[in-house]
Amino acid sequence: MVARARDVELECERLESDHFWRVVNAFRSYRAHTLERINRAEKSFRSLPEAHRRLLPHFLKHLDDVRQCALHNAGVLQDVLGSCNHMFENKDYDFVDAAAESATLASNFDMDKLNSTLKQVVRDWTLEGAVEREACYRPIIDEISNHFPRDYCNPEDVHVLVPGAGLGRLAWELASLGYTCQGNEWSLYMLFVSHYILNRCPGMEQKTLYPWALQFSNNWRSADQIRPVLLPDIDPSCFPDGSNFSMTAGDFLEIYADEEDAWDCIATCFFIDTAHNIIDYIEAIWKILKPGGVWINMGPLLYHYENTPNEMSVEFSFEDVREIILKLGFHIEVQRDCVESRYTGNKRSMMKYVYDCVYFVAIKPGRLQTNADGTP
């Protein structure tokens, strides 16, 4: 039995290592992958009849501009990769230098993940993302400020957890208000980029990205495809004295498995539908919340693993999810349906996805530990 347990442990370590290097390879492959896509667009244009090409004499110049934007993005991503050499356990992973090419191109699936992360940067760390943040993050921030008013309690004593923290903006905002806040994220794509922004980008608008360089469809104008964004829109290093902000890497269910009655507040934004089994998430949130603690949720139910081959997934309606929440013992104090929100949208695109999200505030019955004056 001991040998079998060790074999399982070694297999888990191997799978984690394989995943780690797949993500690294995606960052390495960005340059070659994007150039191949742009070269394919150029080849297709050159295959048109000459009379058709003459109708758009500027198109090849546009593709050259797209190519330069993609090369710029590749340089930024190599900087991101280089900044993460000692990110985990102070190990040096010997990442390739900025000029190196990966031996094997990453899969389209992995490159889609990386390109999605670039769009997440717009949502979390640019001025253009302020509209999305206002729709999704502001209700959560306001609820925490109302539930734990800084005029009546020491915010450092209020411990807030943000599972599925993505690139860390919501957790950063809460920590900047003085709350002790920890973000948790599983995706290495997100962890690499958030580490770079939070730790290597002091000051405002230090970096330029072209997040839509590979968006060849639904563009109103050619210039929209090569539109830059500046990041970050605030200085991530600016915190009030005594602020406590941290990020943990790993699966939410594993990282917090041994905790109980540990958190005053848990804030989930576009997170609970990432579960294989959403009941596991709800039970874990119940367990780690203190009695009297508050769970604030915003998001849809776009189940992450619904169509993923060989992955277990159960998909419940919100009616069912609400029933589960109540049966586990939560009291739902606030519920707002059909809260309109976009996610990593491009405001200059012809196509936009709009979610009708559910926002709710649930309380774990009991009493929070109070200070001498009776405040949390």
Automatic annotation (TrEMBL):
One of its GO terms (molecular function) is carnosine N-methyltransferase activity. Coiled coil: none annotated. It is an enzyme of class 2 (transferase). The keyword Methyltransferase applies. It holds the Pfam family CARME. It comes from the Eukaryota. SUPFAM superfamilies: S-adenosyl-L-methionine-dependent methyltransferases (SSF53335). The keyword Nucleus applies. It is found in: Cytoplasm, Cytosol; Nucleus. InterPro entries: CARME, SAM-dependent_MTases_sf. SMART domains: N2227. Keywords: Cytoplasm, Methyltransferase, Nucleus, S-adenosyl-L-methionine, Transferase. One of its GO terms (cellular component) is nucleus. Its EC number is 2.1.1.22. GO terms for biological process: carnosine metabolic process; methylation. Its main location: cytoplasm. PANTHER family: CARNOSINE N-METHYLTRANSFERASE (PTHR12303:SF6). N-methyltransferase that catalyzes the formation of anserine (beta-alanyl-N(Pi)-methyl-L-histidine) from carnosine. Anserine, a methylated derivative of carnosine (beta-alanyl-L-histidine), is an abundant constituent of vertebrate skeletal muscles. Also methylates other L-histidine-containing di- and tripeptides such as Gly-Gly-His, Gly-His and homocarnosine (GABA-His). Belongs to the carnosine N-methyltransferase family. This is Carnosine N-methyltransferase. It comes from Eptatretus burgeri. The lineage of its organism: Eukaryota, Metazoa, Chordata, Craniata, Vertebrata.
